[in-house]
């Protein structure tokens, strides 16, 4: 039953062993060698003295080597005790000048009362030398000091990504650079991500521009045990080689053998359970669990053989002992059992979490972290039963429901897990999420209730601890690596952008383009109260009801309104702004039967509007706002519930260029209508509605050229026949042009030319006839500037021959900024998708990155050239975040875009570009509390003139 407590299974909890005291690196090397030589001589003499001559045993020639290995078997990884007294980093680049970052607000990551400091940071030798007050006498010692005035702005440790495929899942994605997964078997602990790391990936500089300094690069999740991960610094190195990027090289410098001498460095290994390895190898969860147990049983036998061998060898009992038992393929898994490898497990559902916890206890190895881990917040006590210590949990902020395992994912997971005392990490899974914006994941986690110190720690100090590297990264402390970020606002403020990034004391941004942010952005953002929603999430086992509650009164009065934005045709304007200097002049908005009747300062001004409504419902917005409902487009919102489950979605249309379209559908003249495949009340649609996205415009899904006819629908409707559910049945025609090889781009352009200039039949004839007459828009999905140029040329050709004017919209547009002037001159609009571009594919490689790498972003570049711009989404789960994309675009414009302009990017502009008729009277309005729609406010109501109601959320 929902809400009932289920008794958890009992596990054996074995506490972690305390760390042994460690000697300095040089001394340990000397002692190890001395021990081996003494042991060898002792064993040789012992054998000669104690054994009868007739039974004397010859000491093996490799005895010293084997005794050395025995001596090191139980040594645990970690730095020597004097590590932080080092005067120079092992990664120091000779010639690097010392740097003073002065007048900074410093988030140190410490919890000893020094979490935030005002002062300076001195960098030298690749290390942080001083934090706080740096006296002049010390500075006088530096003749070539670089001085940076932070002007009171925030400095944090460098951002650390605990889950990345940077450099192995290469960007742009090409077949020749895909080294993420091996498909040679479910258990492959001997593989190493280092062997596939591409040091020329286009994403390094982008991620650095977002403050990322360190990343754990993991193999993919096709295998139960996919191989060994590597921990890298992102900065380019003089050797240009993968080995040079390693934070701490666990191997001999010019060899590939694991080097246990000096001090041990943790290694890392990638596991996966559940759907991914099951699907790849046609297994079930039972098969994958057995693959784990079989592998560990093999490793356990090797470990026991080594322990038995060493027990006899150290006694000098060489008789019949044979060679030291080892296996190069399995040595890393044996080291997992010795606690010298950090285990990172891709694991979503309760059943898989429970499986791995039991296996960890059966074979007695700790799990460093569960990754993705969407259901961990539902079973925190299961995690606490893992061997040694509870695993950390590495999460997305809002990405969920893209497959069955992620269906119960919750935005409240970080706060719930933290409340249970578990370590929370926010991660990217780059390039699934662009790791340039990893700090955005922390911002969202904070927005939904994770305390600010834990949210920032989730991308700095906490991953450093999980990685076993909190002795050198993750903090702003003396003796630590000089990996720092100077931000233009508080790191948890929406749109926070680095002004400079240092890795190993080296500034990474040449001539960064800086943004001016309001003073309020220098403070920890105020976030809404989501206590009720978090409790509901647990009550309903991760699937709380999302349907809105309709106001019981016909009249709703919103008080303490700070601003009101309204739409007029295809524009948005600010219709009301309260006088912030006069608390008594706060705005009041009266809504009756879903119509906004009055917006004025003070309740008395709107008294006439509520006269006689004794049952009027009053809602205090606490400085909130009213704005037009937003629109989602680009992803199949409304056509699917779970992306990777075919039974939950509309599916894909026939592609007339590559396959025959059945006559029963309409043959070659068929145009599919998205309206026919709509699904209402999906969780992503309802979550979008609750976040102010009140309608969606969606086209049929295609993997080829011709998609079909789009439709506009209400995201809050329960079914298609409900009043107002279908906003507009058909708006425009969609096609897609991609350089995928077959058919060629030129073939696709030729097909489009034929549809526009030649005789056709069926629905194609009807709707392309409307396109030719300029009545409906043609939406062309294209990213490459070359393809866009060909489309513009075709548009001019058609208009010249038909003496008409076409309505043309480009969707995608990653390289559209290169043709900004031409697009403006041709009156062609662009829907940027994604809103913040990323060179994921070859056709998207020439993006304009935006600040701090470029002065302007794509939105501003296009808008300044007269192009109507809209913002789309790639994934349905991301529809709820449209408001934050708008805010980011406005902030990156450095004041060139007003809030009204930003709101238009995902409302009236999208409707105009996709053929949805303007309806200023019936358009939905979104009501927020504690700020406007572009801030970290909370959506509390939807005003729907179309349905004549107010939904309370």
TrEMBL record:
Keywords: Hydrolase. SUPFAM superfamilies: Composite domain of metallo-dependent hydrolases (SSF51338), Metallo-dependent hydrolases (SSF51556). It holds the Pfam family Amidohydro_1. One of its GO terms (molecular function) is hydrolase activity, acting on carbon-nitrogen (but not peptide) bonds. Residues 413-504 form the Amidohydrolase-related domain. Gene3D superfamilies: Metal-dependent hydrolases. It comes from the Eukaryota. This is Composite domain of metallo-dependent hydrolase. The lineage of its organism: Eukaryota, Fungi, Dikarya, Basidiomycota, Agaricomycotina.
